[in-house]
Each structure stands twice: as structure tokens, then as C-alpha cells.
Amino acid sequence: MERLTRVVQDLSQARTYEGIVDVVRHAARDLIGADGATFVRRDGDLCHYVDEDAVAPLWKGKKFPMSTCISGWAMLNKQPVAIEDIYADERIPHDAYRPTFVKSLVMVPIRSQSPIGATGTYWAAQHHTTSDEIRILQALADSTSVAMENVRVLDELEEGKARTRAIYDHLPNATFVWKRQGEDFVLADFNKAARTVTKGVVAGLLGKPPGELPHAFPSLEEDLAGCFERREAVRREVECAMPGAKDPRRLVLTYGFIPSDMVILHTEDVTEQRQIEEQLKLAQRLEAVGRLAGGVAHDFNNLLSVIMSYADFAVDALHESDPVRADVAEVQSAARRGAGLTRQLLAFSRKQILEPVSLSINKVITDIEKMLGRLLGEDVDIEVHLAEGLGSALADPGQLEQVIMNLAVNARDAMPRGGKLTIETANVELDANYAEQHVAVKPGRFVMLSVTDTGSGMDAQTKAHIFDPFFTTKERGKGTGLGLSTVYGIVKQSGGNIWVYSEGGRETTFKVYLPRVDAPAAELQRRPASVMATGSETVLVVEDEEAVRRIAERILRGAGYKVLTAAGGGEAMLHCEKHSGTIDLLLTDVVMPQMSGRELAERLAKMNPRLKVLYMSGYTDNAIVHHGVLDPGTRFIGKPFAAAELTRKVREVLDERKAAGK
Predict the structure, then answer these.
(1) Which parts of the chain have pLDDT scores under 50?
(2) Domain shared by 108 and 208, yes or no
(3) How many C-beta atoms lie closer than 10 Å to residue 557's C-beta?
(4) Chain centroid to CA 50: how far?
(5) In the sheet that 81-83 helps form, which strands lie side by side, from edge to edge?
(6) pLDDT of residue 216
(7) Which of helix, strand or coil describes residue 21?
(8) Is residue 407 within 8 Å of residue 451, measured between CB atoms?
(9) Nearest Cα to Cα of residue 265 among 255, 274, 276, 277
């Protein structure tokens, strides 16, 4: 019993199955004076002879069906079996034992809820097993069962611990565990992400209080104490410096209480997420302001058309020495400035009409480089780096020139004491990763235009509003605040994107990305000078705004044209039915109640296939454009227009018919 007690103590200290097997196979033989011992584990429907301690080799490492071996019989019947003469017992596979030394044996099941194995002893001579020997072996087997269960539980705990550690280390965000010691906390653990984020610094801080951490999170000690005392989660978003990081990072800190005097701190870096959210808010705000600005510009353009035209009529009617002529000239000047503002508002709101062509940005820059020099002044050095083999971009040449000019003027204003302006171009590929971090950007091929100044830079608050209409950092009366708004609208309407990179006290870079196309760059034609063009053809003017309608009629009659007018589509169709002569041109507003200009043109084309069409509008809709791009073959003039511009455009459209032989 003393020896059995020591064996039980040895089993209780065993931490592996191998250790249990080693104890049992020696003890089973020694406790009852046997010649050999075996240890068998159940493996499904097989008996696995794990190890043996015998005077001759038996079946170590082999597996047999439970129905063919005596250890299987003991497990299946859940009771010990003692055999004095193995060759006289029909339960024994005699042929299997003939090569061995065994003459007698005893086998007892290792029981749990169901037998999980067996242990037994052998004798080389016939041996009568006593009941005491069986009880000793069964007690050993029962202790073995407890030891195996302990090892199983320990293995599961270790597996669970390893699994938890693996999950913990695979968390993408830095996580720390703090343990309460007295009134303070000390760092008890951290995961791999924490080691990476802190550049390994955290490894030397185990057991240290929060105050010894470099780059400590704001309110760390207070939040740890609050979570621990209230036994509830604490969540806080902070900005803090991180080892190796150039700029502060935005972190969401979540503290959770763990029973046994611990608090776990989970960190989530949301810097990029917050930046994208700010980009989205900016885009939404600009979209809303753009809709409002576009609506205002539409109505204002009609008013400006009337003001500009009647001012032109008045100037023409007044003698050069008339003192009133100077007053009217001021009205003309103010109206032209107003027209410029509405064009900028329409550009920002992406409601202007573009006539894009495949063009070379390098060629556009080269053509206006001298003009930029005169515009910026001698105290600003201009460096131009144009990429060789630059792809073509699909854009409106005039609008692209305006983008470059506005960016250059903005750069000059940022360098009041002079500096350097650098213009660069390049072919770029924007990948999915870039698109994920920039709102509304799609991966693909782009032509990049970069404008960099050496000015004072912008702080975050200024940068968040630079594209807002009428936002300016200049003194009152020094600027409209529409230059960058116009750039933004043109770029977005052209299917591109614009991003600004700047910090207070540092240079500023604007990068414009326009979709790259495979078509070769077209030859750019300069618009002819604004001179009055005359004619004698018949023009049907359709405009729901009476004042604008009268203006168009007066201009065209003054240029020699015969003019019919209508306030809407129905009246225009009646004119066509009743008019005995030929109507050569339809000049129609695009957006009208009841019937749009496009619908009217299509109906009249059935009545008069030779009819040419010129659309006019101060605002775009989907009638003649798609996403602000003019439908191919469509002729258009924007409001407000000058008399010379209208007559020139009418003449161009009419002459196209003659050139085509119609």
C-alpha cells in the first residue's frame, strides 16, 4: 500500500501521457511481482499497445481490433480478467501468443465514463492471480484514469491558452493588458501588433506603470482606474504621437474589465478612416452647395443676358461724346464681371457645358507658359517639367487652360514675396489601395498635372474649405473666392480628381488627375475674334423668358436675319406649319416648360429635315448633354452671350449646311 501510495503521488504529478505510461508500466509489474507489464489505450475500435515492460518483445506500438485481444475484452466488458493458462482460455488468440514468453496474465480496464484503456501484467510461468493483486491493479488503473483526465484537462487548457494567444497575436490592432497592483496598474501583457506599433519599445515595459510609457495615451491612468472601478467599458478617441510616426495618429481606445484584477486596452488606428470621412463630408458639402449655386446661376444668366444686351444697344446708340455713354460702359463692365462669376459658379457646380477633345496637357502648358510668366511677375520663378511620352487626356481645352491659370494665380497669392512655381506632368496608375483612401477615385490610368508653390502652406482648417465657393483667405475686396472652386468643378466634371497636399509653413502641391485616353491629341484651334456676322436666312427663336427672346430677336434682325419668335414648343410648331417660306435655323432654349428644346428640335426635324439647330442655355440638364459633355454634333451657345458671339455662332451653324452641300 505504501508503494501504491507513492505510485499514486507520482501519477498526480505527471503532466503528459508519456509520463503516465512510464509510471504505470513499471508500477504494474513491481507492485505484484510480475515478469512484464503493458499499457493499452483505446483508439476508436482498436487497442493501441502504447508501451511495454517485458522480458521479451511483445506488441509495442501495434494496434489490434478490440474483438481480437484480451485488453479489448476487458474494456468492452468493463471488468478485470485474470487468465492462469492462456492456452486454455478460448478468449485468447493462441497463435499470437506462441512466439512470446507469456503463460499467464491479468488485464484491468482503465475506466472513466467509458473505458479509455487497459493495463496488465504477464508471467513467464503459470501464475494464479489473487484477488488482492487484482484490487491493487484496479486501484492503479483507477488512479491512472484520474491522472489521464488531469492531463486531458491540462492539455485542453494549454490548447485553449495557445489558441487564445494565437487569436490575441493575430489581432490587427495593438492590445495591452494591465494588472492591478495595489493602487496602481502595471503592464502585464501585449500582443504582436503592440510590439510592431511601438517599434519594440513595449517589450521593455512589462511590469512598469503607465507613467513610464513613452508616447503614453492621453488620460491612460484615469481611464484604467475608471474601467476597473465601474467594471464597465470605457471608449475614447484621442490623438497621440506614436513611435516612428511622422504625424500624430487618431486612435480609438476601448478599455474592458477582466475579472482577476485586469483591464484590457484595445487600440484602433482610425487615422485613414477619419481622413476618408472628412473627404466624404467635403464632397457632400460641395455637392449641396453646387446644386444651389447652379440654380442661382441659371436664373442670373437670363438677367445678365438682358442687362448686357441692352447696355450694348445703349452704347451703340450714344455718341462717343455723350456723358451717359461712360455710365452705360460701367454697366457693361459690371455685367461682364457678373457673367464671369456665373460661369465660375456653373463650373463649380459642374453645370457648364464642356466640349472635350483628346489633347496633350504638355501642349496646353507650353502654349500658355509665356502668359503665366507675365501673370505671375518677375519675382516668381517658373519651372516646368513635362513628361516625355505623356498620354492624351480627354478635356475641354479652354477649361483646362482655366484650371492651370487659376492654380497659378492661387500659388502667386501664396507667395507675396516671390518664390518658385513648379509645374509637372506624368503618366500615373492609381491602384485600388489609393482609391480606397480617396473618396470618388476609381483605379485606372490617368494623366497627372502637378502645381507646386513655395508659399506659406495651409493649415488643416483652411485646407478643408479651399474648394468652397467664396471662401478666401485674402482681405475683403481682394478676391472672389471662386478660383479654386472653378478648378474643382472643371476637374470633377471632366471625370478627374484633384487633391491638395499642404501643411502650415510648408509648400503646397495641387495634383490634378485626368483620365488617360488612347486617342492621339487633336490640333487645337483658337476661337475667332468676336465680330458681328451677318446673314439673310430665316431663324426661329424659341425662348420662354420674354426679355431674352426679345434680345435674341433684336440682335439677329440687326444682323440682317428674318426672325420668327415663340414662347414655347407648341407655338413654335404652329409657326412652322403656317410659315410659307423656309425656316433655316432653330435657335432654342434647352430648358423650357412642357416641351424641352431637344424634344422640339426632334419634332420639327420630321417636318423640316433640312432644319439646323442651335441650342442656348445658362444651365445644363440631360437634354443635350451627358454628365455635362455635349452630345456629338450638337451646337450650343451659353448664356449670357454678346451680340457678336450670337451672330458668329449662328453663322457657323448655317455655314455648316452649305459646306455639306445641303
Answers:
(1) 349-350, 477, 529, 622-623, 626-628, 662
(2) no
(3) 12
(4) 57
(5) 63-65, 46-53, 36-43, 115-123, 104-111, 81-83
(6) 66
(7) helix
(8) yes
(9) 255
Q: 102 and 242 share a domain?
A: no
- Measured between alpha carbons, how far is 239 from 250 in angstroms, rounded to an integer? 5
Give the pLDDT confidence score for residue 621 in this predicted structure.
Answer: 52
pLDDT digits (tens, 9 = 90+) for 9-43: 888 888 888 888 888 888 888 888 898 899 999 99
Q: Which three three-digit cell numbers place residue 442? A: 476609381
Question: Which CATH number goes with the domain that contains 387?
Answer: 3.30.565.10
Domain end (from 345, 379, 394): 345
Whole-angstrom Cα distance, residue 23 to residue 38? 11
Q: State the pairing for strand pair 36-43/115-123.
A: antiparallel
For residue 184, is it within any domain? yes
Domain final residue pick, 345, 374, 395 = 345
Residues 182 and 146 in one domain: no
| Full domain range(s) for residue 476 | 357-517
Indicate whether 197 and 133 sit together in one domain.
no
Cβ neighbours of residue 218 closer than 8 Å, sequence gap 6 or more: 238, 239, 240
Strand pairing category for 612-617 and 636-638: parallel
Q: Which of 558, 533, 529, 522 is nearest to 614 (CA)?
A: 533
How many Å apart are CA 121 and CA 54, to the nearest integer? 9
Ranges assigned E (strand) in 317-475: 357-359, 380-385, 392-395, 419-430, 444-453
Strands 585-589 and 612-617: parallel
Q: What is the CATH number of the domain that holds 202?
A: 3.30.450.20
- Verify that 474 and 603 share a domain, yes or no: no
Q: Compute φ and ψ for 568, nearest 5 degrees.
A: -165, 180
Read off the pTM. Answer: 0.47
Residue type, 416: P
Q: Angle, to 10 degrees, between the axis of helix 271-317 and the axis of helix 546-558?
A: 50
Copy the grid coordinates of residue 612: 439646323
pLDDT reported for residue 632: 66
CATH number at residue 85: 3.30.450.40
Residue 39 pLDDT: 92
Q: How far apart are CA 118 and CA 72, in angstroms?
A: 8
In the chain, the number of structural domains is 5
Residues 390 and 436 in one domain: yes
Are 188 and 262 part of one and the same domain? yes
For position 577, which CATH number holds?
A: 3.40.50.2300
Residue 81 near residue 100 (C-beta atoms within 8 A) = no
Of the chain, the end-to-end C-alpha distance in Å amounts to 124
- Of 392, 292, 353, 442, the C-alpha closest to 626 is 353
Residue 350, pLDDT score: 46
Q: What is the pLDDT of residue 48?
A: 92
Selection from 246, 247, 226, 250 nearest residue 238 by Cα: 250
| CA triple 461-467-469, angle to 5 deg | 110
- 164 lies in some domain: no
Of 15, 28, 23, 33, the closest CA to residue 71 belongs to 28
282 is a domain residue? yes
Residues 650 and 550 in one domain: yes
Give the separation between CA 430 and CA 289, rounded to whole angstroms. 28
